[in-house]
Design brief:
Blueprint lengths: L1 H14 L49 E13 L1 E2 L5 E2 L1 E14 L4 E13 L14 E17 L2 E12 L12 E12 L19 E6 L5 E2 L5 E2 L1 E13 L4 E12 L4 E12 L8 E12 L4 E13 L1
Antiparallel strand pairs: 1-4, 1-16, 2-3, 4-5, 5-6, 6-7, 7-8, 8-9, 9-12, 10-11, 12-13, 13-14, 14-15, 15-16
Length: 311
């Protein structure tokens, strides 16, 4: 009986080989031409679930209003007032103001204002004030709407008025003014114009070429007589020196009569400097304003020093 039991146990042990068998190693897959990576059409990599998200465009803040505020001192020069009288200006306060009304469509309003002062002459001030005597003499206003309709192209509609502030024979009302309205189409040359109305936009450096027409009213020539303006051309250009610290500027304008006869050539040229690295908005200018009348063959020039703040 005992021998039968031992024989049965040995039979069961050797018949069940899975108890001691080890798992056989799997053979390596064959490398064929079909399994090699295709250098022409590589298999796209599946992005990792931990890969960084797509970059979010940087937010650029917009400005509601922008422009230039300036003061010019004019030690020399002669000018014709809107009433046709000549005078010697000694200062001007300048303002260029722009503000959005429909930003998504590139539509904004603009205003150019300038107040002129006259030095002590012709009895307009107290003679004891000598060089310090000054009188408000003229205010020029121009404003309207501008539409940046595509790329660097801009259309403008504006009105203008040049007012003589000396009352003349009236004790109440100013005597002598010129006004009208115009149409203009501009092409901006400056790459920074793409930031129109954004932080960093510099209206003082926004160079452009333009063509326009005055359909209405009048201006005054160097002979003191009014004329009806017509087509005009304008170019504002700059040339940089020393990496933005200093640049030359030129504002050139041609104004013809409505009969397409040449009449006025206006030049404002000079040198601009921004000496403060911590305040690039502060700018000093030295320049000359010139008005040449082609019909009467004369010109008036004004030399000036200017302090401006670009905002």
């Amino acid at each position: 009986m005992r021998q039968a039991t031992v024989a049965l146990g040995l039979f069961i042990l050797f018949s069940d080989q899975s108890l001691f068998a080890q798992e056989a190693p799997q053979p390596a897959p064959l490398v064929t031409q079909d399994t090699l990576p295709d250098p022409v059409n590589p298999v796209p990599e599946i992005p990792s679930p931990t890969s960084p998200a797509e970059e979010v465009p940087e937010f650029v803040p917009w400005k509601t209003m922008w422009g230039i505020l300036g003061l010019r001192a004019m030690p020399i020069g002669l000018r014709v007032a809107p009433n046709g009288s000549e005078y010697h200006p000694n200062f001007s306060l300048d303002l260029n103001l722009n503000g959005w009304i429909w930003r998504s469509q590139g539509l904004y309003l603009f205003l150019d204002a300038r107040l002129w002062g006259e030095r002590s002459e012709y009895g307009v001030t107290n003679g004891n004030d000598s060089w310090f005597g000054t009188s408000k003499r003229e205010v020029d206003l121009s404003g309207g709407a501008a539409w940046n309709y595509v790329g660097a192209w801009e259309a403008r509609v504006f009105g203008y008025t040049n007012n003589n502030l000396n009352r003349g024979t009236s004790l109440v009302n100013p005597y002598g003014f010129m006004d009208g309205f115009g149409l203009e189409n501009r092409y901006y040359l400056s790459p920074e114009y793409s930031r129109l109305g954004q932080i960093g936009f510099d209206v003082a450096r926004a160079t452009f070429l333009s063509i326009g027409y005055y359909p209405s009213k009048d201006m005054v020539g160097n002979n003191g007589l009014p004329f009806e303006p017509g087509m005009f051309l304008r170019a504002y250009l700059i040339y940089d020196f020393w990496d933005w610290r200093c640049y030359a500027f030129g504002d050139f304008q041609y104004i013809g009569e409505r009969s397409f006869q040449p009449r006025l050539l206006l030049f404002d040229v000079g040198l601009a400097v921004r000496p403060f690295r911590s305040c690039r908005q502060c700018e000093f200018r030295i320049g000359s304003e010139n008005t040449a009348d082609v019909e009467v063959h004369n010109d008036f020039s004004i030399g000036y020093l200017s302090l401006r703040y670009i905002f």
